[in-house]
Design a protein that fits this description.
The chain has 4 helices and 9 strands, in the order βααββββββαββα. It is an alpha+beta fold. It has a single domain (2-174), classed as Trna Endonuclease, Chain: A, domain 1.
Amino acid sequence: MIEYTVTESDMQIVDQMMTGDKFNRHTLVEKGEGQKVGLMAEIAFKRLLVKRFPEIEYVGHKNYEYDFEIDGLTFDVKAKKRTVSCKPEYECHVNVYQRKSNVMYYVFASVVDDLVQFMGYMSKPDFWSKAHIVKKGDDTGIVEGADSAKMFYRDLRSMHDLEENIELYLYRKAFGEV
């Protein structure tokens, strides 16, 4: 897990970007709270990577399939608001309707107050081959609000590997190997 504490300056950016609306018809959280949590995680993700990868570009405002690009790599940051610190046995999820999205990697985060906890990442093909599907209305300890693919945080790739894998990709691309 990698943690990032959102600053006052970061929150000013979040406040400027928020519309206060639901993201789409699949959004469960009211009054833009889900949007706030998502933006906090997206800003934290960029802050963590921008020093090593200045070419990171936020595209979430113009592309609804993913949030970031780094020289051809695409990332969708999935954030979940929590009231307690996240644990490896908790689950992450991606709604089934997003299965056809044109994204390469999912990055999973939990947000507790101003603390963003990045729990791991996974390529889209690996996620969909390893996750289990739950249906809207299933009782999994909570009543599921949408058809989703879920897996435990402990089964994700470590966030500590992410930067090295991006660097390896960029190196291979520079030498025409990708």
